[in-house]
Amino acid sequence: MQMKNNVTEFILLGLTQDPFRKKMVFVIFLIFYLGTLVGNLLIITTIKTSRALGSPMYFFLFHLSLSDTCFSTCIAPRMIVDALLKKVTISFNECIVQIFSFHFFGCLEIFILVLVAVDRYVAICKPLRYTNIMSHQVCGVLVAVAWVGSCVHSSAQILLTLSLPFCGPNVIDHYLCDLQPLLKLACTDTYVTNLLLVSNSGAICTVSFVMLMLSYAIILHSLRNHSAEGRKKALSTCISHIIVVILFFVPCMFIYTRPATTFPMDKMITVFYTIGTPLLNPLIYTLRNAEVKNAMRMLWSKNLISDDKR
């Protein structure tokens, strides 16, 4: 006999219940979120308006910044506002929407990071065939597949969530709605659901991480044939990319590749890939790039000139 869902809302405990620490959470994460918005929107505007940034790499970085902006917006604004409230509740429908958007843009970010690594592999290891392999048509198809794949993944998360009956309690010891903490509240055996979660989210995180590490390992190995200056530049770029990949994927794998148990550290670990990575990506992938800096200067100069003419 199927159990009925009697829960219409959930209570979110957030990162902390201490009033002083909640104020710290509000200030710190407001600064992080504003930094994420400014950095990513600046990159989106620059790539969209600059003719010099028309290569496939910047096409992927445009979508990376877009996914970072949306991914952070799914979580951070509500988290910041909730830090000012004594009791935080989220309706069942809002919880479903947050799970869908959180997984959609999170999965999209994973796929785009893989595409960025593929682009760098082709550019460094197959430079003579780069323009043929990474044509505009191919890049467009790859990004479209990433968006569709993300939609399929997040839809699977929603189906798994809707299959769970909730009859109380309704307190989520987290700052967001996600399937993993919800499994603890379901009034049924969640073994199969958790197995499906691991085979879905866990597999995407693990396989993508292995692919990224292998691609960067191949890139680093191929650098021995490059000049000292080119090797140094590529090595600096690859190492910074690897650091961001580790900060994003290791926490994801810790959360989504284990049995349906929760730990006190889960909330802080989740912060790394929900708040930290969208803030770091524009700094590591784009703002350190000389071409992007030059394009930003030109864009800034054009705006100043147009303002002076007025």
TrEMBL record:
It is found in: Cell membrane. InterPro entries: GPCR_Rhodpsn (IPR000276), GPCR_Rhodpsn_7TM (IPR017452), Olfact_rcpt (IPR000725), Olfactory_Receptors (IPR050427). The keyword DNA-binding does not apply. Residues 39-285 form the G-protein coupled receptors family 1 profile domain. One of its GO terms (molecular function) is G protein-coupled receptor activity. The chain crosses the membrane at residues 24-45, 57-80, 100-118, 138-160, 201-223, 235-256, 268-287. It comes from the Eukaryota. PROSITE patterns: G_PROTEIN_RECEP_F1_1, G_PROTEIN_RECEP_F1_2. Keywords: Cell membrane, G-protein coupled receptor, Membrane, Olfaction, Receptor, Sensory transduction, Transducer, Transmembrane, Transmembrane helix. It is a multi-pass membrane protein. Gene3D superfamilies: Rhodopsin 7-helix transmembrane proteins (1.20.1070.10). It holds the Pfam family 7tm_4. GO terms for cellular component: plasma membrane. Its main location: membrane. Belongs to the G-protein coupled receptor 1 family. Putative odorant or sperm cell receptor. This is Olfactory receptor.
